[in-house]
Amino acid sequence: MMTTDSNVKEFIEEIKLRVFDDQFIDREEERELLQIAIQKGLGVDKGLAFIRQVAAEKGIVVEREANDRVKEILERFAANDGVVDKKEFEDALALYKSATKGKIPDPEMKRRLKQLMVDQGWKAKEGGLFGSKWFSAIS
Fold first, then answer.
1. Are 93 and 51 in contact (CB under 8 A)?
2. Are 111 and 122 in contact (CB under 8 A)?
3. Composition of the chain by helix, strand, coil, percent to 5
4. CB within 8 A of 34, min separation 6: which ones?
5. Is there a contact between 64 and 24 (Cβ–Cβ < 8 Å)?
6. With contact defined as beta carbons under 8 Å apart, do 71 and 32 qualify?
7. Which pLDDT belongs to residue 29?
8. How far apart are CA 135 and CA 138, in angstroms?
9. Alpha carbon 110 to chain centroid distance?
10. What is the pLDDT of residues 31-75, one digit of tens each?
11. Are 138 and 114 spatial neighbours (Cβ–Cβ below 8 Å)?
């Protein structure tokens, strides 16, 4: 299938329609949009480029990009000793909340950050003077 200007315009309109209500593209919506891009002959790379372009122009949150950003921050925090303390976790959470414009509920964001840390093999610094189990408490 040939890529035409009308295919590009239709795809961009599809992106705008998907985010009309919430200004947020979650992973599932992104996958669906990329399938549409393929159907229109644009391919995955061009589809991603158009999603990013529209997101930048319209102030739309792309969940995957917010996740990538918070992962980079946690990597920096864990870089020296593989440990993230409560303040660093809360700083990463605040950044995540800002990057997602509050579209993901706090408990879900905490679970995602905890899972990211577990997946990366990073430890949480718990205990201390008052024996806080802040990380273990996230469920």
1. no
2. no
3. 65, 5, 30
4. 44, 47, 48, 51
5. no
6. no
7. 95
8. 6
9. 13
10. 999 999 999 999 999 999 999 999 999 999 999 999 999 999 999
11. yes
Determine the residue type at 97: K
Residues in the chain: 139
Q: Phi and psi at residue 138, in whole multiples of 5°?
A: -75, 125
How far is residue 95's CA from residue 61's CA, in Å, rounded to a whole number?
A: 13
| Of the candidates 39, 104, 37, 45, the residue with the CA atom closest to the CA atom of residue 70 | 104
| CB-CB contact of 21 with 52 (8 Å) | no
Q: For residue 101, which of 59, 58, 54, 40 has the smallest C-alpha distance?
A: 59
Q: Which of 93, 73, 77 is nearest to 85 (CA)?
A: 77
pLDDT of residue 131: 61
Q: What are phi and psi of 84, to 5 degrees?
A: -115, 125
**pLDDT for position 129:** 65
